[in-house]
From TrEMBL:
An annotated Gene Ontology molecular function: oxidoreductase activity, acting on CH-OH group of donors
Upper classification of the organism: Bacteria, Bacillati, Actinomycetota, Actinomycetes, Mycobacteriales
Residues bound to FAD: V86
The keyword Oxidoreductase is assigned to this record: no
Signal sequence, start to end: none
Protein name stated in the entry: Alcohol dehydrogenase
Entry cofactors: FAD
Keywords associated with the record: FAD, Flavoprotein
Pfam families, A to Z: GMC_oxred_C, GMC_oxred_N
Superkingdom of this protein's organism: Bacteria
Family (UniProt): Belongs to the GMC oxidoreductase family.
Residues annotated as domain Glucose-methanol-choline oxidoreductase N-terminal: 278-292
Length: 561
């Protein structure tokens, strides 16, 4: 065992939240901060090129390459569950789509936590969510009532458009989904090209935003290729630490046991340990450390430090239903890529002008609508891609086609993340339980039917769309529900596995599933926070990276305050 190193704050995970926390906490030169990352540096060429996600996802160099348990809702299939394992975390391999979610999402957070600061805010009412988003952004269009320009997160418009996607947007308008300027104003109803986290045609990860500019600080230490094995805790809780979820603390987090360069070392935290390892990594580390459902821990012979039944439960994700339509009369990535001359032209366009298809995120055009007119805000989202392939990782189809994928952004199905055994190096078991509720099955069928409606209107007629997936021969609700399970897959938005919740004045959670208070403090373990997508009580409407940054910024302000 190597000698113990001491820091004020130790952050596990150099992903989106971890990079922001390292930036904010090390801004005070009196704070000695350690940032721990299991993966390596983010200096690989394909991380910076936007289309490089094709090479970084499912690659152990940059991805944990988790595989889910066989899911009854997916016809018994197991699927790849990509999570970033590199500096920048999932923001180094994700879709780069900048999506805040809707104001109604944050109403649910305010209800869950009893904290109205989570409300959207702005001129429409109380809350600070919009204000924090504006503080974080460096928006291409300049400052206005919706956006700021003084922040670190660069937000740009896409650098490529497609005639077939413009036609799809016009078709959506024919069925009542109107074009709008953008999705980030609190109500996403409509269609628009996604805004992206890029700078001049290159991926702009949260490491680019928050970590690399301050990596020179002498009070910031970064360990890469370092795996967190266990939390270290003792029973001494100081009175000044007894706040929020820590009022009834029986233990105090004092540090971590790490595996670094083949050696086991201990590191100590004088103030706090902060887990930012994501919705899979954070609950798993807690469970192998003795925090979690007592029955699960006992089954794997892990001594129970604190029985917290919510750790690893409440897993939520967006299930993407990929429909494929062959088209004619318009270019798609399929047709460009199959010709070596046009393929070379795409590369040359990127190298010379930082534009064209190589700057493209996985999905370019989006749309939001309601599955039921009685709903207060949209619950269906489309990601429309000017390409198609049998499944991720396989070659593109040889013919021109598009992929309008639809997902229910407010799923009621809940899954879990559970340790497989007591070894922290063994991957946890992930079960999403997609389509396990009647409401989610109804939304899936509605989404597939609405996609067919859009594809059948006159605006797309000249392109002669032919449905290949799920297949026009499938007509009944039962057929479409079965197809949803057979073609559905994750869109890589896991959240909720260490959920925030409300506490009474005595520091007791009002729900047995609550793990964190509104400042991300872990119930009954002083000096320990979880600051990442795990903290979301309910999933937001759309991509989850921006909401993670909201959580991280609020947590940083709470710690420093």
């Amino acid at each position: 065992m190597s000698p113990v190193a001491e820091f004020d704050f130790i952050i596990v995970g150099a992903g989106s939240a971890g990079c922001l926390l390292a930036n904010r906490l090390s801004a005070n030169p009196d704070h000695h901060v350690l940032l721990i990352e299991a993966g390596g540096a983010d200096d690989w060429f394909w991380i910076k090129v936007p289309v490089g996600y094709l090479y970084t996802i499912a690659n152990p160099r940059t991805d944990w390459c988790f595989i889910t348990e066989a899911d009854p809702g997916l016809a018994g299939r197991s699927i790849l569950y990509a999570r970033g394992r590199v500096i920048g975390g999932s923001s180094s391999i994700n879709a780069m789509i900048h999506m805040r979610g809707q104001a109604s999402d944050y109403e649910l957070w305010a209800q869950a936590t009893g904290d109205d600061r989570w409300l959207w805010g702005g001129s429409d009412g109380p809350g600070e969510t919009l204000a924090i988003y504006k503080d974080l952004e460096n928006y291409f269009g300049g400052p206005d009532q919706w956006h700021g320009t003084s922040g670190e997160i660069r937000v740009e418009r896409p650098r490529v458009r497609w005639k077939i996607l413009d036609a799809w947007q016009a078709a959506a308008a024919e069925v009542g989904i109107a074009p709008i300027d953008e999705f980030n104003r609190g109500d996403n109803a409509g269609s628009a090209y996604f805004h992206v986290n890029q700078r001049r045609g290159r991926r702009w990860s949260m490491a680019d935003s928050f970590l690399h500019p301050i990596a020179h600080r002498p009070n910031l230490t970064v360990y890469t290729q370092t795996h967190a094995l266990r939390l270290l805790m003792d029973d001494e809780v100081h009175e000044h630490q007894r706040r929020g979820a820590w009022i009834t603390a029986r233990h105090r987090a004092t540090g971590l046991r790490l595996l670094k360069n083949g050696h086991t070392i201990d590191v100590r935290a004088r103030q706090e340990v902060i887990l930012s390892a994501g919705a899979i990594g954070s609950p798993h580390l807690m469970q192998v450390s003795g925090l979690g459902p007592a029955a699960l821990l006992a089954r794997h012979h892990v001594p129970v430090a604190v029985d917290l039944p919510g750790i690893g439960e409440n897993l939520q994700d967006h299930l993407q239903l990929r429909t494929v339509y062959q088209i004619g009369g318009a270019r798609t990535v399929n047709t460009l890529y199959r010709n070596w001359i046009t393929r070379g032209g795409m590369g040359l366009q990127y190298l010379l002008m930082r534009s064209g298809p190589m700057t493209m995120p996985p999905s370019t055009l989006g749309a939001f609508a309601k599955s039921d007119p009685a709903l207060g805000s949209p619950d269906l989202e489309w990601h429309v891609q000017p390409l198609s392939l049998p499944k991720f990782g396989e070659p593109l189809h040889s013919f021109a086609a598009i992929t309008p994928s639809v997902c229910n952004v407010r799923p009621s199905s809940r899954g879990h993340v559970r340790m497989a055994d007591a070894d922290p190096l063994t991957a946890p078991k992930i079960l999403c339980n997609y389509l396990s509720t009647e409401a989610d099955r109804v939304a899936a069928v509605t989404g597939l039917r609405m996609t067919r409606q859009i594809m059948a209107v006159p605006a797309l007629a000249r392109y002669r769309p032919q449905e290949l997936l799920p297949g026009s021969q499938l007509v009944s609700d039962d057929d479409l529900q079965k197809a949803a399970g057979e073609l559905g897959t994750t869109i890589f938005h896991p959240v909720g596995t260490c959920a925030m919740g409300a506490f009474d004045p005595h520091g007791i959670p009002r729900s047995a599933d609550t793990v964190l208070d509104t400042d991300c403090r872990v119930y009954r373990v002083a000096g320990l926070r979880v600051v990442d997508a795990s903290a979301m009580p309910t999933i937001t409407s759309g991509n989850t990276n921006a909401p993670v940054m909201l959580i991280a910024e609020r947590a940083a302000r709470a710690i420093l305050g």
